[in-house]
Every structure is written in structure tokens, then in C-alpha cells.
Amino acid sequence: MKILAFAASNNKNSINRTLASYVANLHPQADVETLDIHDYEMPIYSTEREQQLGQPDLAKKFFAKIGEADALVISFAEHNGTYSAAYKNLFDWTSRINQKLFQNKPTLLLATSPGAGGAARVLATAVDSAPHFAADVRGYISIPSFHDNFDTETNQLIDAQIKDQLITAVGRLADN
């Protein structure tokens, strides 16, 4: 199973990218590709820019990456209670190619933050909106206090209960 994992974050050292990659690799038959959305930076979306530029090749490449995957694992950073500007811009450009940008892929939505809130607000927004863009949401989990629950030296989740929840959720990606 080819799983595409990425963080909806513009931080080069994103804890959300760490989490997305870690969780995708919990699937026993996973062939994981982890994207960095920095590789898909484009001008800020507007209808005027779209008329001027057309659909950027980077948006087309991102859409194609989703299409090539069997499943998606996306982990959201929370910026002032919502999506990061970098992710929102990539989403805006890509959704103009096809509003069903998640292409009915089985999807696991995650979020984490250094604080106790675990980016739960942005995750709730993503869970609510993703089906409108053809994500087959199979699960969603917020991980609070990332640095208290994840050992970055060993790349392992410390909390056994959260790890069990993640293993169960990633297993649902293969359910038909």
C-alpha cells in the first residue's frame, strides 16, 4: 500500500511532518512517501493570478502525487486556530485543478502541537471540510503536548495508549 504522508505546515522542522511520517510507517505493508510542502510553494492564490498564470505545474504535481497514492496521512499545524498559510495556499491552487483534490483516497487526519491543545481546532476544521473535497476520512487523532509524548531521538511515541489508537487508525486505511 502506497501511503502519501505530509504535514500541513510550513516549518522546516515540523513536528507534524515527523508525526505524519511516523504514523504512516506504522502500517505493516506501507510504502511511505513523505512530502514537504515547501517543495510546492507558489504565489499566493487569487483569481487574478490564476487568470494570469493558469494552473501552476507545482499544483499539478501535488495533485498527481495524491492520485498516485493508495492512502493519505495528513498532519495539521495550527496557526491562530486554523490552517497554516502555506498549506491553505497549496490547497487553494490544487482545488482549482479539481475540487475533489483528495480523489476519494482513504485518509487519516492528524494534528499535534507543543501545547496541551494538540491543534484540535484545526483538526476539527479539517475533519469537517475534507469530505467536501473527496477525502474518505477513516480516522482522526489529535496528539497533545508533542514533546512530552514523542521521543524525537528514537523517533517513537512514548504514550502506549495513543500509539495503540494510531495503529488502529492507520489500519483502517486498508479497510474496504
CATH fold group: Rossmann fold
Radius of gyration: 15 Å
- Average pLDDT across residues? 96
Number of strands: 7
N-to-C span: 13 Å
Tell me the strand order in the biggest sheet.
2-1-3-4-5
Low-confidence stretches: none
The CATH class label is: Alpha Beta
Helical content class: 25-40%
Structure description:
The protein has 176 residues and is an alpha/beta fold. The protein has a single domain, classed as 3-Layer(aba) Sandwich (Rossmann fold), CATH 3.40.50.360. The chain has a five-stranded parallel beta sheet, with helices on both faces. The protein has a two-stranded antiparallel ribbon with strand order 6-7. Strand 1, helix 1 and strand 2 form a beta-alpha-beta unit. Helix 3 crosses helix 4. The two termini are 13 Å apart.
Concise overview:
The protein is α/β, with parallel strands linked by helices and 176 residues long. The protein contains seven helices and seven strands, in the order βαβααβαβαβαββα. The chain has a single domain (2-174), classed as Rossmann fold (3-Layer(aba) Sandwich), CATH 3.40.50.
Compile the SSE list and pairings.
Layout: E1 2-8, H1 15-24, E2 31-35, H2 47-53, H3 57-68, E3 71-76, H4 85-97, E4 105-112, H5 120-129, E5 135-143, H6 146-149, E6 150-151, E7 156-157, H7 160-171
Parallel strand pairs: 1-2, 1-3, 3-4, 4-5
Antiparallel strand pairs: 6-7
